[in-house]
Structures are given as structure tokens and as C-alpha cells.
Amino acid sequence: MAVIQSNTAVIPGIYKMCVDFSGEVKPGQFFMLRAWDKDPLLSRPISVHDYQSGQLTFLYQVVGKGTEILATLLPGNEVTIQGPYGNGFPQVNTDLCVVGGGIGTAPLYYLIRKFKAENPNKKCRIYLGFRDYPYGVDEFAAVADEVILDVGGIITDKLSVLPEETVITCGPEIMMTAVAKVVPPENTVYVSLEAHMACGIGACLGCTCETKAGNKKVCKDGPVFERGVVFNV
Ligand SMILES: Cc1cc2nc3c(=O)[nH]c(=O)nc-3n(C[C@H](O)[C@H](O)[C@H](O)COP(=O)(O)OP(=O)(O)OC[C@H]3O[C@@H](n4cnc5c(N)ncnc54)[C@H](O)[C@@H]3O)c2cc1C
Ligand code: FES
């Protein structure tokens, strides 16, 4: 159980929740959240948006019953959080180019903030694509070296990757597929996959996906994979 410090709308339908937590948390990892008894049956996976000073932050979009319940929670209420789960993003020793789409931008903030804190001399650029209302842009501008924003268009049309950059992307599968295709083969590309999850720890096989390296569990083997493993590029 974690005590909620705050839970507020960033824009209509997108919420930021801060809870008490202490322990080691890596960018790209996720927690299974639950604030209900039997209905819905399963806990819901939500990525780590930020983590510092005993405070864990989630950024989530209200899409169905589980996230609707999460959005009603108030400061002082408790939420069950199991995790952190998943391998998270790999350690990057080059400059970074990050591509986020919609709520897929959620796990990218902690990634960039930590990367810049640990590698102040390395560059980090982020492409942010939103269908209608952008959010979090000022926060990204405060930690990244450059933010390239697109609203209503196709973010990969603007994408131009430099030879020395490692690329990390999270967002709709169609966007990540496009990123995996347009980035030159010389650049390493990591994608963060989504899947319906039940256990989050590799026990139920519910999140199994076919890859070139055989069947993989998104929760335990991922959610981050190298592009060549999951996409035909
Ligand atoms: C590793 C991981 C990290 C995630 N991180 C975040 C995050 O940081 N912020 C965030 O807002 N969301 C995140 N998600 C997605 C989030 O888990 C789902 O939106 C949530 O479970 C929906 O629950 P619900 O009860 O509100 O909606 P439901 O009633 O369960 O579903 C509503 C609709 O969304 C679809 N849906 C639900 N879950 C998924 C999924 N995993 N993939 C594709 N479609 C789905 C359903 O098919 C349905 O159409 C993450 C998912 C994974 C697997
Ligand atoms: S969610 Fe159960 S194996 Fe991945």
C-alpha cells in the first residue's frame, strides 16, 4: 500500500499521481496498481513517470474502469502498488534521441532527467507527438537539450537522427514501427512495448509476444526490446 500525496488532472483525461515510495526504481520500469477489491479483476500496469526523494510519480490516461477509479483517489487515500517490474531502459553511453507519442511520453521523463543528471556532457533531444492537446512539454524542456513538438501531424515525418545517437521510443505501436523503420540501421533503437497484463511478473503468460528471438513476456523480458527483436526491419 502507498499513500497518495497528490492526484490531479494535467489536462482533461490525463492525471498525475504522486505516492510515497522508497526503494530502487529504474526508468522504463512499471508498477501494477489497484485501488479496488474485485472489479475490475486485474491490477493495471502504469510506468514510472518520475522518482525522487521518496516520491513516485505516475502519469496516466483515463481509458476504462481501472484508470477511472484511479482518477477518483484523493491525497491521503491508499493505492496498492506492486513493483517495480520489468527491465526498464538500458544504460546508454551515447547521445540520446527520444521519441514519445501521447501517453507513451509517460516513462520518458524519468529516463531523460536521470540521463542528464548522470551524463551532463551528453546531449538528449526529444520528439513529442500529440494527436490534439500536448502536455508535459515544459517539464521536458527543463531536462532535455532540445524538444521538437508536433501536434496533429506525424512526428516521424520530422524525425532526423544523428549518427552518434541511441534512439528510445514509447508510444502507439504504429509510431514505434515507423521509428524502427526510418532510423538508419547504424543507430541502436529501443522500443517500449505494451501488452495486456495480469500478473506483471512472468507467471501467467498473458503478455507473451512473438519475437525473432522466440516468445517473450513483455512484463519480464521487456517491456523494452531492441528494435530488431520485435519489428521486421
Ligand atoms: C508496461 C506498461 C506500462 C504502461 N504505462 C502506462 C502509463 O504510464 N500511463 C498510462 O496511462 N497507461 C499505461 N499503460 C496502459 C495502461 O495499463 C492501460 O491503459 C490500463 O490498464 C487501462 O485500464 P482500464 O481499466 O482503465 O481500461 P480497460 O477497461 O482495461 O481498457 C480500456 C481500453 O484500453 C485498451 N487497453 C487496456 N490496456 C491496454 C494495453 N496494455 N495495451 C493496449 N490497449 C489496452 C482496452 O483494450 C480497452 O479498449 C501501460 C501498459 C503497460 C503494459
Ligand atoms: S503479465 Fe503475466 S506473464 Fe506477463
Describe this structure in words.
Pfam families: DHODB_Fe-S_bind. The protein has helices spanning 65-72, 108-118, 137-143, 155-158, 173-182, 218-221, 227-230; strands spanning 2-11, 14-20, 30-34, 44-47, 50-52, 55-61, 78-85, 95-101, 124-130, 146-151, 165-170, 189-192, 208-211, 214-217, 224-226. The chain is α/β, with parallel strands linked by helices and 233 residues long. The protein has two domains: 2-85, Elongation Factor Tu (Ef-tu), domain 3, CATH 2.40.30; 96-229, 3-Layer(aba) Sandwich (Rossmann fold), CATH 3.40.50.80. The chain has a seven-stranded antiparallel beta sheet. The termini are far apart. The site of flavin-adenine dinucleotide has 21 residues, from strand 4, strand 6 and helix 1.
**Taking Cα atoms only, what radius of gyration do you get, to the nearest Å?**
17 Å
Helix content: 10-25%
Spatial ordering of strands, largest sheet? 4-3-7-1-2-6-5
How many distinct beta strands? 15
Low-confidence region ranges: none
CATH superfamily of the largest domain: Nucleotide-binding domain of ferredoxin-NADP reductase (FNR) module
What CATH architecture of the largest domain do you see? Answer: 3-Layer(aba) Sandwich
Distance between the termini: 42 Å
- How many structural units, i.e. domains? 2
Proportion of strand residues: 35-45%
> Given the C-alpha coordinates, what overall shape results?
globular
Mean pLDDT: 96
CATH class of the largest domain, anyone?
A: Alpha Beta
Elements, N to C (H/E):
EEEEEEHEEHEHEHEHEEEHEH
Main sheet? 7 strands, antiparallel
Number of helices: 7
CATH topology of the largest domain: Rossmann fold
The ligands bound in this entry are: flavin-adenine dinucleotide, FE2/S2 (inorganic) cluster
